[in-house]
Write a structure and sequence with these properties.
There is one protein chain. The chain is 38% helix and 25% strand. It starts with 11 loop residues before the first helix and ends with a strand. The longest helix is centred in the N-terminal third of the chain and has 38 residues, at 12-49. It has one helix at 12-49; strands spanning 56-59, 64-70, 74-78, 84-88, 92-95. The protein contains 1 helix and 5 strands, in the order αβββββ. A hairpin with a 4-residue loop joins β1 (56-59) and β2. The protein is α+β, with helices and mostly antiparallel strands and 99 residues long. The chain has a 5-stranded antiparallel sheet, with helices on one face. The relative contact order is 0.12. It folds into 2 domains: 10-50; 53-99, Roll (SH3 type barrels), CATH 2.30.30.30.
Length: 99
């Protein structure tokens, strides 16, 4: 009934209109979700690698202590004068600043 115009492309316009929103969605996810998470993970790994004996830290469970011994995966904390507790290095939440 209605003939197609001679100069009208058949499917490239619909393909581009399908791909462009996908690219935009990926860019939004990258800049809002993926990139900040990678940055946070990098700073956490740097903090864990920079730990030294005598640093005051807080574990993920909220336990405060001072590092007595460090190994690759294990940290020994002094909780009070007589109590020593062993934790995985990954269980450390953050270092407490001295000031």
């Amino acid at each position: 009934m209605f003939p197609l115009a001679a100069g009208t492309p058949s499917g490239t316009g619909s393909l581009i209109s399908f791909i462009v929103p996908l690219v935009i969605m990926f860019a939004v996810f990258y800049f809002l979700l993926i990139r900040p998470q990678k940055k946070k993970q990098t700073t956490r790994n740097n903090m864990l690698n920079a730990l030294q004996k005598g640093d005051k830290i807080v574990t993920i469970g909220g336990l405060h202590g001072t590092i007595l011994e460090l190994a690759d995966d294990v940290v020994v904390l002094r909780i009070n004068d007589t109590t020593k507790v062993t934790f995985d290095r990954s269980a450390i939440s953050h270092r407490v600043s001295e000031s």
